[in-house]
Amino acid sequence: MIGILDYGAGNLASVKNAMDFLGYEAEMVTSAKDIEKCDGIIFPGQGSFGSMVDILKERGMYGPLYDYIIGGRPFLGICLGLQVLYEGSDESPGYKGYGIMKGRAQRFEKGKVPQIGWNEICPFADDIPGGWAYYVNSYRIVDPKNAIAMSDYYGRFVAAVKKDNITAFQFHPEKSGKYGLSLLRWWYGCLQKE
Amino acid sequence: MLAKRIIPCLDVRDGRVVKGTNFVNIRDAGDPVELGKRYDEQSADELVFLDIMASQENRGTTINMVRKVAKEIFIPFTVGGGIDSIEAIGTILKSGADKVSVNTAAVKDPELVRKSSDYFGSQCIVVAVDAKRNGDGWEVYTHGGRRPTGIDALQWMKNVQDLGAGEILLTSMDCDGTKSGYDLELHRRADKLLSIPIIASGGAGTLESIGDVLTEGRADAALAASIFHYGTYTVKDVKEYLAGIGVEVRL
C-alpha cells in the first residue's frame, strides 16, 4: 500500500485523485503507526517550512518519517516534501530539516515570488523525461547534488532529486497534466522493480 | 523559464457549463469535466470555473462539480463566484480545487483575504478585481460588476497583496466582452505596483491582443472566455502564435 502522508495541510485530495486515476492503491496516512505499514510514502508538503515541521512533530510523525526514509524505504517528496530532506529553509530559520541532503532552501531572489505556473524540467540523465511541470514555490534548492533534473527561474534550481530510495519533486506532478502523471507512474514503476 | 499561462474561463450554473458549446463531437457540452478535458488536451495551463449564480443554497452543487473535475483533470483549477467565508473556501479547496477566487466578499471584509491566506496559504487565494476607468484611475466594482465601490483599483490590489493574496485576477470592465483588446495601461500599472502574479482578463479578441497583454501589458497569464468557447481559436492556436512571437509558453 502507498501512503499519502496527511499532516493536516495541503491539497492531499489531488495526490490521492491522481493515484486513483492511475489505478494505484493509496491511502491517507495520519499516524506514526500507519507509516510503518506502507510500502511507499508520498509526502506532499504545503504551507510554510516551519509549520510543516511543527505539525509533523505535534502528530508524532517527524521522527517515524525520518526513520522510515533512513531505513531505505521508498519515499516520494513533493514541494516542501523535497525541502524537508535538506538541512533547513531560510523561510523558517529556527527549524531543522532532516539533513539527509546537504544545503538549504533559499528564497528566489528575482522575479515574482512565489513562482506560480509551468516551468520546463530539464533532466540530467535518463531517469525521467523532460517536460513542463506546475510549480508553486517561493523557496528552492540551488545545489545540483543528487538532482536528476533542474529548472530555471532567474537562475537554475533543483526540480527533482533521486538518491537510493528517495525521490522528490519541487513541482507538483499531480497538477502537471499528462507529464506529471507519467512521473508518478515512473516512480510507482520503480517501486515494483525493487 | 516560467511560461506565460493561458487560462480558459468557464461560466457554470447549477454545476453545468452555460457558455461554450461550440465544440465539435462533444457528448455533453454542459459537462464541466468533459469541457475541462478538452481544454486540457489543447494545453490549457489552468482552468477557472466561475459560478455565475452562486448562492449558499446551491453550494452543494458546486462542491459536487469540483469533486468530479478534481478526479479527472490534473491541471490546476480555480473556483470563483459567491465565495464569502473561510468555511466556504475550506470546503471548496477540500473538494479538490487548487485555488478559490474571491471578489465582493473581499471588498466587504478584507480580513477574509488575510485569514484565508494565513490558513490555507497564499497560493490558493486569488483576489478577483473588476476595474473600470474613472478619470485618471480605475474604480473597483463588485456584485458581478454592477456596484461601484469608490475604491481605487490599484490601491486595492496593493492592499490585498499585503493581506496575503497569492494572485490577482484583474478584469477590465471597459474591455470585457468587447474583443477589442485588453486594457494594457491598467495591466502595466498593476504589474509595476505588485509583486504577485497578475492574470489579465477582459478584452481578448485577436491573437495579437493576447500577445500584447503578455508582453506590453506584462501580465503573467491571460484569461479568456468567448474566443475559446465559440471556437474562434483553440488554446493551442494561441500558444503557437505566442511561441512564434517569442513568448515562452508550454506547448
Structure explained in plain terms:
- The complex is a heterodimer of chains A (194) and B (251).
- A nine-stranded mixed beta sheet of chain A has the order 2-1-3-4-12-11-10-7-8. In chain A, strands 5-6-9 form a three-stranded mixed beta sheet, with no helix packed on it.
- Chain A has one domain: Rossmann fold.
- Chain A is globular and about 40 Å long.
- Chain A has six helices and twelve strands.
- Chain A is of the alpha/beta class and 194 residues long.
- Chain B has 251 residues and is α/β, with parallel strands linked by helices.
- In chain B, 37% of the residues lie in helices and 24% in strands.
- An eight-stranded parallel barrel of chain B has the order 1-3-4-5-6-9-10-11, surrounded by eight helices.
- In chain B, strand 9, helix 7 and strand 10 form a beta-alpha-beta unit.
- The radius of gyration of chain B is 17 Å and the shape is globular.
- In chain B, 53% of the residues are buried.
Topology of helices and strands:
The complex is a heterodimer of chains A (194) and B (251).
Chain A: E1 2-5, H1 12-22, E2 26-29, H2 32-37, E3 40-45, H3 49-58, H4 62-70, E4 75-79, H5 80-83, E5 88-89, E6 104-107, E7 115-123, E8 131-137, E9 139-140, E10 147-152, E11 156-163, E12 166-169, H6 177-193
Parallel strand pairs in A: 1-2, 1-3, 3-4, 4-12, 5-6
Antiparallel strand pairs in A: 6-9, 7-8, 7-10, 10-11, 11-12
Chain B: E1 5-13, E2 16-17, H1 32-41, E3 47-51, H2 59-72, E4 77-80, H3 86-94, E5 99-102, H4 104-108, H5 111-120, E6 125-134, E7 137-142, E8 147-152, H6 153-163, E9 167-172, H7 184-193, E10 198-201, H8 207-215, E11 221-224, H9 226-229, H10 235-244
Parallel strand pairs in B: 1-3, 1-11, 3-4, 4-5, 5-6, 6-9, 9-10, 10-11
Antiparallel strand pairs in B: 1-2, 6-7, 7-8
Helix pairs in contact in B: 1-2, 8-10
